[in-house]
Amino acid sequence: MRPKLQGNMMHTELPPTSQLEDALALQRQAYLAHPVPSLDERKKDLRTLQRFIREHQDALVAAISADYGHRSRHETLLAEVFPAVDGIDHIISHLRGWMRVQRRGLDWRSFLGASNRVIPQPLGVVGVIVPWNFPLNLSMVPLSYIFAAGNRAMVKMSENSRHLAAYLIEHMPAYLPPEKLQFFDETGGVGVAFSKLKFDHLLFTGSGQTGKAVMVAAAQNLCPVTLELGGKAPAIVCDDFPLPLAAERIMFVKLLNAGQICTTVDHAWLPAAKVDAFVTLARALVAKRYPSLSSPDYTAIIDQRAFERLLVALDDARSRGAQVISLMDGLAFDRASRKIAPHMVLNAPPQSLLLQREIFGPILPLRTYDQLDDVVTSINAGPRPLAIYPFSYDATKVQHLIDHVMSGGVSVNDALFHVGQHDLPFGGVGDSGMGHYHAREGFETFSKLRPVFYQTRFSSLKFLFPPYGKLADWVLRFLIR
């Protein structure tokens, strides 16, 4: 299904369920005809995917920027192109070991020649539902693990990624055939139909609310689901950590993609005496990195609805007595370009929208604490976050936070979570998601770790066949002694 261009707008008719089902049937048939691709075949698919990204990177960057209204070229290269290309190299270097059959011990039974093995085998056809914020990364990185595990894939793009979806739909078939990979555009209702397909596994990245609906739909087919959601990930700056370094690292990540990242710092905890200094440091960093809203390095908010939502949240904080600080000289926002200046918010009450909902924008509330355990109590009172970011050189404090605050992951003394960390699993917990991909865990998520027991010519169970007698009594007493 190829999108049609109407003027400057792309338009795609809603694919009937039959078209999605036909695509699934095509891939299922191909899987059944060749269920276990060899190591060389999998490497070839991975190299082909990597070659597509490299050969089309300029057009892919331009398509993503068009979808945003403006997206920093360097941010797309850093956060989308690099992780996908570099990640494929990592997978290929480890794939032989991941595919290796595991031999498991049988204790005394192994002396009789019996053996146990665990064989990683492809599941079949995997569905991927991709969000708009990092659409290249969050399609290509999962596809890398899906292909590494020997599967085929159908990918549904976001309604906010229309230019990118059109480009992928048009150009990917020259690299990977439809029985291996197909992309679908979202024109309204496609996601619902897609999530109802009988996939062998479904990966969804997006909001918790939509994730619940996807999980309900997938449950009708007993389709296993990996949910990568979000959450209010906190940075926790301890007294011993250098404040300028904390500000530098937190603000870099917070303003990357204008804060539209599921793993970004949602809010920061600071000792009360350090708040004013942190604001001053942050203002200086913004002036150096983004002199004005028109900076080509500063990304726009994805659409008008998200833009208005962020402005409403700032107004709500003001109305509740919070101090709202624009960190950029000049305009605080620009409707024409959908850009919002970096903001900090002090003394926001717990009922404010900024503290109740995931922010997903360039706004950083600062919260103060006297005792570290007060931070622990506050975080644990809410949904479990996708990540926490403790800043401290005191190993005891850091371990205390790791032990007492459950999250999907942890980044110590930085907030750049998982970019380039290909050997760590990625996934949430509770409200921030379930399941993992990336690293070996990604290969295993999209594989069936199939247990196989090989019996010998002579079976010890022969002594336990009915009718039971003294020999069976002796054997059982020996086994459970």
Automatic annotation (TrEMBL):
The keyword NAD applies. InterPro entries: Ald_DH/histidinol_DH, Ald_DH_C, Ald_DH_CS_GLU, Ald_DH_N, Aldehyde_DH_dom, Aldehyde_DH_NAD(P). Coiled coil: none annotated. It comes from the Bacteria. GO terms for molecular function: aldehyde dehydrogenase (NAD+) activity. One of its GO terms (cellular component) is cytoplasm. Residues 14-450 form the Aldehyde dehydrogenase domain. The keyword Transcription regulation does not apply. Keywords: NAD, Oxidoreductase. It holds the Pfam family Aldedh. The active site is at 228, 262. GO terms for biological process: aldehyde metabolic process. Belongs to the aldehyde dehydrogenase family. This is Aldehyde dehydrogenase. It comes from Rhodoferax antarcticus ANT.BR.
